[in-house]
Design a protein that fits this description.
Elements (H helix, E strand, L loop, with lengths): L1 H15 L9 H12 L17 H4 L3 H9 L23 H12 L27 E4 L4 E3 L8 E6 L6 E9 L6 E9 L19 H6 L13 E6 L6 E2 L4 E5 L4 E8 L6 E3 L2 E6 L6 E9 L12 E8 L4 E9 L4 E9 L5 E7 L16 E3 L4 E8 L27 E9 L21
Parallel strand pairs: 8-12
Antiparallel strand pairs: 1-11, 2-10, 3-9, 4-7, 4-8, 4-11, 5-6, 5-9, 12-19, 13-18, 14-17, 14-19, 15-16, 15-18
């Protein structure tokens, strides 16, 4: 298998050789590739460990860049190309890969700085542009140097006096080294969810309320809130297409769910979410739904344990994006649509799931999900000693919040008429297979 892979690479490079300049330099050839594919993360304040904005920054990493692009580790993208096309596909072209390899192999020359492209424009601290509103935690949370930290929650009022439509949202963690993930949920004014907690109070909820924050919400009452935005390793900012937006009702609060991981050094976190409003009333409202399964037990040592989940659409909607979620034992994940006609379609196949990169996959073409369509998800988990990320192959594993436990969630965003009641997206009086809608 290794030989076949190597031969395939050799063949690909031979085919792309004609497109690689005879003398590759950073200024003329490499900088545009890094600007297009890498600098959104590889710049100060973002997730990547080193910036790649200048020749001086990139030169020491030339060999590492070569290895990363050859092995397809960078840019991160895990969708099987045989199933579907995605508008946010990060895959580099073979010509780009060949250019980076040739640059590294030739000693990584700088070339004439006059050939550099104009620097890419970034809004400091944001990937969505300057937010119209920033909603932040009102007091910092202290993370200890060691120990297990339960999910923390805090309620922050928006003080919106009228309904607002959000076209882009981005969460910025206050301490990237200690924040594993943040989810911002919407709590509309009629909701009873967490009404026994005061705004600004950082708390660990009762088990029932905590569970509600992770599942599907049929009603925005004691069942939990609608997802607005999320931050996790590798997760890009949520930017919707023109004409699509998420609704934040007047008087709503934002409920932050915060997952911290101790790393040996104590610290404080003050996370926030930035919102960009739609410039005109949208045609479609977007919501996040989920096919999930909480009732699994992965046997100790099992290298390929299968878990299935499904969600049945209660109303017509358009598929906008998919985000598979598992933890460290996650191996692969796929989404299928089974239509009312009985026809089945593979929507997304991720053959090598990577917990370090939580990615949304956005179909390039509009895909309608008629009422009665089932979104079916299948995942496999590797709980064996051959999984280098496995926390403990000697233990069976169940659903849990911490990274050494497991989850199986097929998140997916749908768009529907902006005036439609979102409750109709859920089938009436019918439980989801494997897990009911909370």
């Amino acid at each position: 298998m290794r030989l076949t892979f190597v031969l395939g690479l050799v063949s690909s490079f031979a085919a792309a050789a004609a497109t690689v300049p005879s003398s590759v330099t950073f200024s003329k050839d490499v900088a545009p590739i890094l600007q297009k594919n890498c600098q959104s993360c590889h710049r100060p304040g973002e997730a990547a460990p080193m910036p790649l904005l200048t020749y001086q920054q990139a030169r020491p990493w030339a060999k590492a860049i070569k290895e990363a692009v050859l092995l397809k580790k960078m840019p991160p993208w895990f969708a099987d190309p045989h199933y579907g096309k995605f508008r946010n596909d990060r895959t580099m072209s073979q010509a780009e890969i060949s250019t980076l390899v040739a640059w590294a192999d030739s000693g990584a020359p700088e070339g004439d700085p006059k050939n550099l492209p104009a620097p890419a424009s970034f809004i400091d601290g944001w990937n969505i542009g300057k937010p119209d509103v920033e909603v932040a935690m009102t007091s910092a949370f202290h993370i200890p140097a060691a120990g297990t930290i339960e999910y923390q929650y805090v309620i922050v009022p928006t003080h919106f006096t009228e309904d607002r439509w959000v076209q882009a949202a981005e969460i910025r963690p206050g301490n990237r080294a200690l924040v594993h993930h943040v989810i911002a949920f919407l709590r509309p004014p009629e909701s009873k969810w967490f009404r026994d907690h005061q705004p600004g109070e950082i708390f660990v909820p009762e088990k029932q309320d905590h569970r509600a924050a992770n599942g599907n919400r049929r009603n925005n009452d004691e069942s939990g809130g609608e997802m607005l935005a999320g931050y996790a390793p590798g997760l890009p900012a949520g930017i919707l297409a023109p004409g699509q937006a998420r609704l934040v009702k007047a008087g709503s609060d934002i409920v932050f769910q915060l997952h911290y991981t101790a790393n040996g050094k104590p610290g404080d976190d003050l996370s926030k979410v930035g919102l960009v409003f739609s410039k005109e009333p949208p045609r479609q409202r977007v919501m996040t739904l989920a096919a999930q399964n909480r009732k699994f037990v992965i046997p100790a040592g099992d290298p390929n344990y299968r878990v299935d989940a499904e969600f049945e659409m209660g109303h017509d909607a358009q598929l906008v994006a998919m985000l598979p979620h598992m933890h460290l034992r996650g191996k692969d994940f796929e989404y299928r649509a089974v239509y009312p006609t009985g026809e089945s379609q593979m929507l997304l196949k991720v053959p090598r799931y990577d917990f370090s990169w939580q990615l949304w996959y956005m179909p390039q073409d509009q895909l309608m999900l008629p009422k009665g369509t089932r979104i079916e998800c299948t995942a496999h988990f590797d709980n064996s000693v051959n999984n280098p990320g496995n926390p403990d192959a000697a233990k069976e594993v169940r659903w849990g919040d911490q990274s050494w436990e497991e989850m199986m969630i097929g998140f997916f965003d749908v768009a529907f008429d902006a005036h439609m009641d979102p409750k109709s997206l859920f089938p009436e009086k019918k439980k989801q297979k494997n897990d009911s809608a909370d």
